[in-house]
Fold:
Amino acid sequence: MSNWNGKTIIITGASSGIGEATAERFVKEGANVVLAARREDRLKELQDKLSGETGKAVYKKTDVTSEKEMKELAEFAINEFGQIDVLFNNAGLMPLSFMKNTKVDEWDKMVDVNIKGVLYGVAAVLPHMIERNEGHILTTSSVAGHEVMPTGAVYCGTKFAARIIMEGMGKELAESNIRTTSISPGVVQTELTDTITDEDAMSFLKDGVGLGSMTPLASEDIAEGVFYAVNQPAHVDVNEIIIRPTNQG
Ligand code: NDP
Structure:
């Protein structure tokens, strides 16, 4: 029997990309996986696809920018499976743009999803984990949470914030059995760039930083990193993982 039988992981941003691949990875290990995102059709499709696997996947439509919905997501997981072992705060948006183009609504959205969404996730599960003196909270930061590039002033800012929130929380929880991890991917082939509306940014990314010729990672490559971090023995706390394509500078 796998270590994961009977354990529960909540994954936000599970309707596509890295979240979807991570859900698949954990269900195959026997875990109970709670899929969360806004696109209910995609969540239902994934739940159906995973129904024959060793573990169990269930979904709850959730907007991470709502503190209430995040609380309800945690309650749902506890009602379904009795406990929350892992929260993977993975939902994110990346509408890159130049500051001069003042895409204020997109700045707002990135702050709301990439920072406040993470905080609401923490608020929803941390009291439960403290009560059990056990648990693991992971957040998807990025290589962009380690270095800033033109068009990424706000996005990178949110990913730095997400990473630092994990690090600070980890320090506060050092005396407990609760672990924290930042996962920092490089370029991964997903739908993430669909949210870019700034044409200057699009041409900069294609011509200026050579993304056009890079071989991106697959979401499964990142899911493997998440699994590695979570699957360590209880005394091992993997705080940070950076995974980038070999040919990404
Ligand atoms: P996707 O666009 O495939 O996934 C983003 C996910 O976030 C979707 O499932 C989307 O679901 C969800 N999401 C967005 N807004 C909300 C919201 N308000 N509430 C709930 N869910 C939301 O891209 P990725 O898989 O690439 O992105 C996953 C994470 O990885 C993000 O945090 C991203 O910043 C990070 N990342 C990605 C990299 C890459 O190159 N792809 C590199 C580094 C980091 P829905 O729309 O259904 O709500």
Remarks:
- The first strand starts at residue 8 and ends at 12.
- The pocket of NDP is lined by residues 12-13, 15-19, 37-39, 42, 62-65, 90-94, 113, 140, 142, 185, 187-188, 190-192, 219 (CB under 6 Å).
